[in-house]
Amino acid sequence: MTEFSDLGLSPTTLQAVADTGYTTATPIQAQAIPVALAGQDVLGIAQTGTGKTAAFTLPMVDRLASGRAKARMPRALVIAPTRELADQVAASFEKYAKGTKLSWALLIGGVSFGDQEKKLDRGVDVLIATPGRLLDHFERGKLLMTGVQMMVVDEADRMLDMGFIPDIERIFKLTPPKKQTLFFSATMPPEITRLTKQFLRDPVRIEVARPATTNANITQRLVKVPSSDPKAKRLALRALIEKAGIETGIVFCNRKTEVDIVAKSLKVHGFDAAPIHGDLDQTQRMKTLADFRSGALKILVASDVAARGLDIPAVSHVFNYDVPHHADDYVHRIGRTGRAGRTGEAYMLVTPSDDKGFDKVIKLIGSTPEEEKLDLDYSNAVTVKREGDRDRKRGGRDRGDREERGGRGRRGRSEDAAETPAEVAADAPEALEERPARERRPRRDREPREPRTVAPAPIEAEPRAARPERPERPVRGVQPVRDRDDDDRRVVGFGADIPAFLARPTPGVAKANTDN
DNA sequence: AAAAAAC
What we know:
The chain has 516 residues and is an alpha/beta fold. The protein is built from 20 helices and 16 strands.
């Protein structure tokens, strides 16, 4: 057992840790913190739930505490694959940087640029970002990465899955080669290995045991649903939730559309449920998560955006409404319960058409979970009723082969009929119709990157001498540096007064700002 | 076969 006090952290940082109530470091923390404090690169191979976030946040806070931020020049960068994950890292900074003057900003998509830009202009020590928004700020000339001394890449293998590797490479190239990098990944596929070989400098490799695929605290059960009709599955889900006596639960679906439908259906049936997935408004996503964390919301209906990495404490139940596409996802999903010594229950609804995915899950976990019998009458669920039909907005979706529905066959989207007005409301997925069709970005890891043409030229030619810590004589347009103590967050560098040459758009920059 | 991430 390693105590935090044995790791070489400063008294201020240790106090912040003590305030959170933690005393014992996890294995990844015990191994990574001393290495990181010594300024070495870290290659951390660790799953979520191993205490990874604190493993890089704590040494970062410690190492940065003595310096100060310059306008638009962060000293440290944390890149995370999803917005929620980035938000979580930010929460970690909020806790651990409490006793310092360090500032941080969260740069994620889905929220306005205004506040983020304001913070960048004022100068922040640490940027916590998703790749897209970070590069967006860079292209707008709002950000220089030439002052980055520390960089963290979190969940690298997930970034690979999401096609972010070219972005990560680009960010690496925009930061000075001589910086400290802390790189985390749960697995090491070849592309990730290549990346670490290219950008890490003699890293210390720290590998913590992959947590058992099935945590002993989790009771797994499966529920056989005799029909693949979504209506039957929803019926089973409701019965299950009632029977299970949940405190808090997450219902995982494979598709965003299904998340919406299931959440709506549960709400209509009087359950305290809300959806979360990547097409929902970001403020909504954050609010739903906050409600769920605080206990104000009991049931979270989620896509796999919530399967990994999210720190959601004390979930008593996980329901796999759909058998996950990847068996790995099953492990991540049920890992949302049974954490920190608590017990948890995980259920999986299995329909006749799920056999393939189901087999993969069984193979991975090595045994077949016990079956939970619900003793339900599914006949309503598979009977096609017509009453509600005229009230439903179909949004141009094809109703097609209605007649041949015996209730057993495979169908496309949930087109099931409903038996009550409430069901109609639950089943009419207006949300789907209102959702703007998303333009998918092409996966860029397949294409060669375009040469960068719109880099903010003046920023590139960042003259070191033009940003003296203490200029002998005042330079026009440059804020004289004052003593740090007479002001809590004085920005050093250009501050709000940007010299005219910097403010002048270069053709490239102007193009970047006006393009679409 | 789907989710995630920039306007």
